[in-house]
Write a structure and sequence with these properties.
This protein is mainly α and 326 residues long. The chain is built from 13 helices and no strands. It has a domain at 103-276: MetI-like (MetI-like fold), CATH 1.10.3720.10.
């Protein structure tokens, strides 16, 4: 198993390198504006010498290849101790704060929100999807499929705005804007996080419900299920030990690969509920063209996606005994 994980990590390395190259080129070459232009415009100046001094001070002077090597940390071989390989993502161009320190504070918040959202979707979709498959073409099946389509059609962020608006108008209620850490005040933290986590999990739960239903219907028609039933095994054993485990394989894939997307999709919810996660950090950075922050966040999302894919691959062997590590 260790060899398999090591091999998957080595295979993922070229993907991560390609992502760093594309992210760097997009932000430093393709954008129509430059952060120095924005800063100088605020002060009403256009002095070339001042521009050159600011570029050198902010670490964005020199040719692109040198900047890329310094950002990734490959320049460490030439005596530069900064860069990703040394765990240094640089500093924000606007706040001059280390990006790594900001991410240490914000990444756990977004991860918690995304994990709660995925857990909400999973806990809702799996039992309802199984029930819908067992009641195929009956009223529970029709009702659950209609609910799944409705969940996919309603934007969660719109529902969040509606809840906050009418909650404040009709019930004099609004979510707290003062974020509390889970270790300092668990009760207040739960009051802040439960609603956005529920709303984020609503949209994927509709698709997961239909996926679980489809997979269960396909598995229940397999020969080994009929063999297990013919042997006299109980309905619960056949359903949960044989059918559900195999039906969950594509569900695990969707959840694992979709987790980084859910975390990245918390941007609007973090803005609406004033949660200090990666989403708000990214929005502020894009508005200010803060290159190091945007590149660092893109790298974090890419690493989350790569790790999710590896965890999905590893989990297959635990769900399906026919799959073995090679």
């Amino acid at each position: 198993m260790q060899k398999y994980i090591a091999a998957r990590l080595l295979l993922a390395l070229p993907t991560v390198i390609l992502i760093t190259v594309l992210t760097f080129l997009f932000l430093r070459v393709l954008l129509p504006q430059d952060v120095i232009d924005l800063i100088l415009r605020e002060y009403g100046k256009s002095d070339p010498k001042l521009r050159a001094d600011m570029e050198k001070q902010l670490g964005i002077s020199g040719d692109l290849s040198t900047q890329y090597l310094e950002w990734t940390g490959v320049a460490w071989f030439w005596g530069d101790e900064r860069g990703i390989l040394q765990g240094d993502l640089g500093k924000s161009l606007h706040t001059d704060r280390p990006i790594t320190n900001e991410l240490k504070r914000r990444v756990p918040v977004s991860l918690e929100l995304g994990l709660w959202a995925q857990a909400t979707a999973l806990v809702t979709a799996v039992p309802l999807g199984v029930w819908s498959a067992l009641r195929q073409d009956r009223w529970p099946d029709y009702g659950l499929r209609s609910v799944a389509i409705l969940l996919n059609a309603i934007p969660g962020f719109w529902l969040a705005v509606v809840i906050i608006t009418f909650g404040s108008l009709w019930f004099h209620w609004a979510p707290s804007i003062d974020y509390k850490d889970i270790f300092s005040d668990p009760v207040a933290h739960f009051k802040i996080m439960w609603l956005p986590a529920l709303l984020i999990g609503l949209t994927p739960s509709g698709g997961l419900l239909r996926l679980v239903r489809t997979q269960m219907l396909e598995v229940l028609r397999q020969d080994y299920i009929r063999t297990a039933q013919a042997k006299g095994l109980s309905q619960g054993t056949v359903l949960y030990k044989h059918a559900l485990r195999n039906a969950l394989l594509p569900v695990v894939t969707v959840i694992g690969v979709g987790l980084p997307n859910v975390i990245g999709g918390t941007v609007l919810y973090e803005q609406i509920f004033t949660i200090p996660g990666m989403g708000r950090y990214l929005v502020d950075s894009v508005t200010r063209l803060d290159y190091p922050v945007i590149m660092g966040l893109n790298l974090v999302f890419a690493m989350l996606l790569v790790l999710s894919v590896i965890l999905v691959d590893v989990s297959y062997a635990f769900l399906d005994p026919r799959i073995r590590f090679r």
